[in-house]
From TrEMBL, chains A, B:
Organism: Mesorhizobium shangrilense
Classification via InterPro entries: Pyridox_Oxase-rel, Split_barrel_FMN-bd
Gene3D superfamilies per UniProt: Electron Transport, Fmn-binding Protein, Chain A
Biased composition regions of type Polar residues, renumbered to the chain: 1-13
Basic residues composition bias: residue spans: 14-23
Record-linked Pfam families: Pyridox_ox_2
Region (Disordered): 1-23
This protein's name: Pyridoxamine 5'-phosphate oxidase family protein
Length: 241, 241
């Protein structure tokens, strides 16, 4: 993999500069990648025939390349083959902020918006590498233990890729911020934290006898934070690359 | 509030018909609203000057009207004043599906995509009602206990609204679905469930003495599922309406 210096930043323009609450924005690779790597679910905005679509999907990252699964809807494929502007966003909700005024109610969150040209990955080697990545990035080392992918499956899967041209991260991570004169107002105020938590694994009822849960899933133990498990898996995946 | 029959459905067109895995799609109001009401975080796709933007924000719902906070960036405001096509999506990740082939790896999820024309809500009465709604929809009854909103705050807040013209819900909620011949393959397979869980509330350090946590927050107790708390709050909010 190419090394990206951790101090590097994405360029800024009208497109990615954080406008509302710009004090919460940053543009360095490390901040953007930290948000992306802590999530599995992303939302991608495309425009087709003047209509914006906000599509939820699973993303994975190799350096500054983002990959995700695409719809095989023919209209979208046509646009994606030529390359189409897209925006991929990952967001984590971390807490509800209950202030003493409606105006200061808020949420703690981490989000990253990434801009670039989305295109279909159809070069066979790049596509196979990306398809192994979607497994190994989440479960490092798992891909080679699976029933190998067939040519038909590779063909039936649409992988979309986008090099990040510009990006921003935006984070709110603090307590209640009321107007100074409101702290005397007689109402409860505080933070209600929330997080994505892993539950107890449910083995497939048709598992072969003696098939133990593999070590690479230890980060996804019951009660773990999903964001931490995903971040650790990405680090392991990069270490293997 | 207007009553919407629970058997009602949104019309379908090329725009909202579920293409990839259409067996997972539905179009009835109840299915779409259930996904919307279980979430606080949404992503909105807009297009400005040919560039799609995928913006994370907080949404709330009154019947088939969606509201969210907007950026005050002047370029966006100009488009939004005139009304602009948008797509608001809410997604919940419920589990990771580890299959015996890479191709059958998947996720359990619930998502709703809503299409319509987004516009700035600037009619004063509608805007004030929407601003009370963003508090009461999450914390029923809280708005009237807060320091009242000032004219300046109302002016400084951009509320965007969109009547849902078309929508779809998409749900995967099942175990591993391998190809029949793969069940003999010697690899662990199963579901790793995940959910948004509420943590221990952190009262503001500057709370007035004796200010107890109000009853309307009982659904947000430590260990509760956020989706359930939000769904219950919406039901209470509708009951009050």
């Amino acid at each position: 993999m190419n090394e990206i210096p951790t101090t590097a930043s994405f360029p800024t323009s009208k497109r990615n500069r954080v406008k509302r609450r710009h004090d919460r924005g940053s543009y360095d690779h490390a901040s953007v990648f930290a948000v992306l790597d802590a999530g599995l679910l992303c939302h991608v905005a495309y425009t087709f025939d003047g209509q914006p679509y906000c599509t939820p999907t699973i993303h994975w990252r190799e350096d500054d390349m983002l990959y995700w699964h695409g719809s095989s809807a023919s209209r979208m494929l046509r646009h994606l083959r030529a390359g189409t502007p897209a925006c991929l966003t990952v967001s984590h909700l971390d807490g509800l902020i209950l202030a003493r005024s409606g105006f200061n109610h808020s949420a703690n969150y981490r989000s990253a918006m990434c801009f670039g040209m989305a295109r279909i990955i159809d070069e066979p080697q790049e596509k196979l590498k990306a398809l192994a990545g979607v497994v190994d990035r989440f479960y490092p080392g798992r891909a080679e233990t699976l029933r190998p992918i067939s040519a038909q499956e590779a063909k039936a899967t649409t992988v979309i890729g986008m090099r990040i041209e510009e990006a921003s991260a935006k984070v709110r991570a603090k307590g209640v911020a009321d107007d100074e004169e409101d702290y005397e107002y007689p109402v409860w105020a505080g933070v209600i934290p929330v997080s994505m938590v892993v539950g107890a694994a449910e083995p497939c009822p048709r598992l072969l006898p003696g098939m133990a849960r593999p070590d690479y899933l230890s980060g996804y133990a019951e009660g773990a934070r999903l964001a931490q498990a995903l971040t650790d898996a990405q680090r392991m995946y990069e270490g293997e690359g």
